[in-house]
Design goal:
single chain, about 475 residues, alpha/beta, Lyase, Ornithine Decarboxylase, Chain A, domain 1, TIM Barrel, 2 domains, 9-stranded mixed sheet, 8-stranded parallel barrel, disordered N terminus, binds pyridoxal-5'-phosphate
């Protein structure tokens, strides 16, 4: 349990989690949490890409997801640039697959296409978005532990460049589909390496109690390789794949996973006389949601990963295969904030006599379920104006019929917040819109992209007609 969940209640009030410090200036922005063009104008109003949030709220309404287009594309391009440079000498560069599950819509898929990335999808629906955006099949990877026949067929039909196989059943299904369509399906084997990583900790065990992939420890992964090779030419084995977790801040988990998976890669070379041309090390690179988080820049990440791969390949006597990675959160997350309007402010008496201030906004767990689902931490700021009032420890909650409908558990916000104020929550570009729902029949907010003083809707707001559209 997190330290602050135990309830750090003091005689003089609740002080929040230990990492949260009362700010000197309640209007100050902690820059690492925000997209690069976000700042306060001289009038104190938050602006992004040269557009103020008061204008955004007026034009598009609240709540709204606001993406800094240059920030999103800049982060994507930085991954491509640093990984191709740093891995150039080892394996001629590395490929960056944007993990579409973090957030995908047609316009985002176009950015990914135009900016030289590859794209990971994990469902027929995500594949449909990629196809609509004109993403070439060769630059798409398809994941999923239980892809349907229709999904596999669509992937083979579109010429998806790598299908990451996840079960023995799927190997046979995919081979049959490829044979029937007269195609050769390129595949990677999803290997469970027994490493589970999250933030600064990782657990390395022999086994992994989860649904994805083929176990390294039981020999299933080696058996999957044999069966795929036996399905040649309908299946064409490109390499091995591992993905060890999410919101990871250092490379020690990748080190153990690379060591284990390269041992299998070398075993395949010995047993079958083939050095597989590719190796995917997955995604999971962490971002800052609060001042507690201190992510590694892509350059350091790439340098450390390159050193690990180089060392482990030498140790195993194999050439370095073409490396790929799959960042989702680290590209999409920091590019976006959610803009809300305050509806109510309440003081609530806690056990022990302290007060907690609840600020209710016009969205909540339907547009950001991460707090409720993962006990995630977020930050917030008063966005529509600056304030000279004192900072007050505040909980920002949504409007849903659920007491767990919390957006930001603890944040210092100015004492003078009232209904009608705008609040911005940064770091909501990944796994927020993607995990959104229509809970309580709440229409989903739009996604607004801002760049060079221009704001445009890239996913429109849902309407009551949208909510009713499926009812027969
Ligand atoms: C979710 C996922 C990713 C992306 O994870 P992030 O934490 O968003 O970087 C990459 N690869 C696979 C296989 C995934 O399931």
């Amino acid at each position: 349990m997190r330290a602050h969940e135990a309830g750090a209640l003091h005689a003089d009030g609740y002080r929040g989690p230990t990492w949260l410090h009362q700010p000197q200036d309640v209007n100050a922005l902690h820059s690492i949490l925000w997209a690069s063009s976000v700042g306060r104008s001289t009038d104190g109003v938050l602006a992004v890409g040269g557009v103020s949030v008061t204008d955004l709220a007026q034009q598009f309404g609240t709540p709204a997801y606001v993406v800094d287009e240059a920030d999103f594309r800049g982060r994507a391009a930085e991954f491509v640039r640093t990984y191709s440079e740093i891995f150039d000498g080892l394996c001629g560069g590395a490929d960056v697959y944007y993990a579409g599950k973090a957030f995908l819509c047609t316009e985002i898929a176009r950015w990914i296409r135009d900016d030289g990335l590859f794209l990971d999808v994990c469902s027929g629906g995500e594949l449909a978005v990629a196809i609509r955006a004109g993403m070439p099949g060769a630059r798409i990877g398809m994941h999923g532990n239980n892809k349907s026949l229709a999904e596999l067929e669509a992937a083979v039909d579109y010429g998806v460049g790598r299908i990451i196989v996840d079960s023995f059943e799927e190997i046979d299904r995919l081979a049959a589909i490829a044979a029937r369509l007269g195609r050769s399906a390129p595949v990677l084997v999803r290997v469970t390496v027994g490493v589970e990583a999250h933030t600064h900790e990782f657990i390395a065990t022999a086994h992994e109690d989860q649904k994805f992939g083929f176990s390294l420890a039981t020999g299933d992964a080696a058996e999957a390789v044999r069966r795929i090779l036996a399905h040649a030419p309908h299946l064409r084995l490109l390499g091995l794949h591992s993905h060890i977790g999410s919101q990871i801040f250092d490379t020690s988990g990748y080190e153990v996973s690379a060591r284990r998976i390269l041992r299998l890669h070398a075993q395949v070379a010995r047993e079958h006389g083939i050095e597989l041309p590719e190796l995917d090390l997955g995604g999971g690179f962490g971002i800052a949601y609060t001042s507690e988080h201190d992510p590694l820049p892509p350059k350091s990440l790439a340098a450390e990963m390159a050193e690990i791969v180089d060392r482990e390949c030498r140790a195993n006597g194999v050439a370095v295969p073409r490396i790929s990675i799959e960042p989702g959160r680290a590209i999409a997350g920091p590019s976006t904030f959610t803009l809300y309007e305050v509806g109510t402010v309440k003081q609530v008496r806690l056990d022990g006599g302290a007060n907690r201030r609840y600020v209710s906004v016009d969205g909540g767990m339907s547009d950001n379920v991460r707090t409720a689902l993962y006990d995630a931490d977020f930050s917030a700021t008063l966005a529509g104006r600056a304030s000279s009032a004192a900072p007050v420890l505040t909980r920002v909650v949504g409007k849903h019929c659920e007491s767990g409908d919390i957006v930001v558990k603890d944040e210092f916000l100015p004492a003078d917040i009232v209904a009608g104020d705008l609040i911005a929550v940064p770091g909501t570009g990944a796994y927020c819109r993607a995990l959104s729902s229509q809970y309580n029949h709440t229409p989903r907010p739009p996604v607004v992209a801002v760049r060079d003083g221009q704001a445009r809707v890239i996913v429109r707001r849902e309407t009551v007609d949208d909510l009713l559209a499926l009812d027969v």
